[in-house]
Amino acid sequence: MKVLFAGPSLHGTNWTAKHSDALRCCAPAGQGDIARAVVEGATAIGLIDGRYEDVAAVWHKEILFAIEQGVAFYGAASMGALRAAECAAFGMIGIGAVFERYHSGELVDDAAVAQLHAPEELDHAPLTEALVNVEATIQHFAKLGAISADEAVRLDRSARALFFKERTYPAILAHAGLDQGARGERLKALIKSCRLDVKRQDALALLAYMDYLEPARRPPPDWRVEPTATWILTLRRAEKLAARDEDANAVPLEVCS
Description:
The protein is of the alpha/beta class. It has 12 helices and 5 strands. It folds into 2 domains: 132 residues, Rossmann fold (3-Layer(aba) Sandwich); 69 residues.
């Protein structure tokens, strides 16, 4: 069983419908979701998006537990890129440009990939823009000569000055003083038509790779997760939730008789 946790990074791609047979498609992961997937039999896990405000974020230890159990573990784009950079030494594999920036130390701020987004009922539609996407877009426009060097600097400073919950392209243009007049309209049209989304590119790369993974667990590494009291409680909770789901999905005996 292969499992992928994603949300806003893959919004609009219809990924759950296209890959439902090959993958268990799950919403952004919170603390405990990885451990639960391992207990339920996951052979490969991909982490793209994660929760971090309304619940505790994905715990590093549950990622290490997955790897200890022989689960192939991959991360990209958002929370997945962060955790892959942090857990690379233990066997988590990162994919894409965002991961490479975190892994090399070029990027260190967690908020650079953070976005507000709608709930699952609305396909986790992004409501703000991630800084990594804005940076890539500005650099792309400057390289093509679509914006001046001064405009590039002003847009970059504006994006970095905004809190991630307020970082939208209209807010960036307004904060930079570039949202007015004919030039403002041209910049708005340029962004609407040509902005880059490196998070989505990385997420799609991981999604495609998951299709090619072998449906079996790997040989375990030569280290083990320390069974602390907190970890034991976390694992027991995951086992209870998995058992509850199994009971709920069980077919009554009389139906089979």
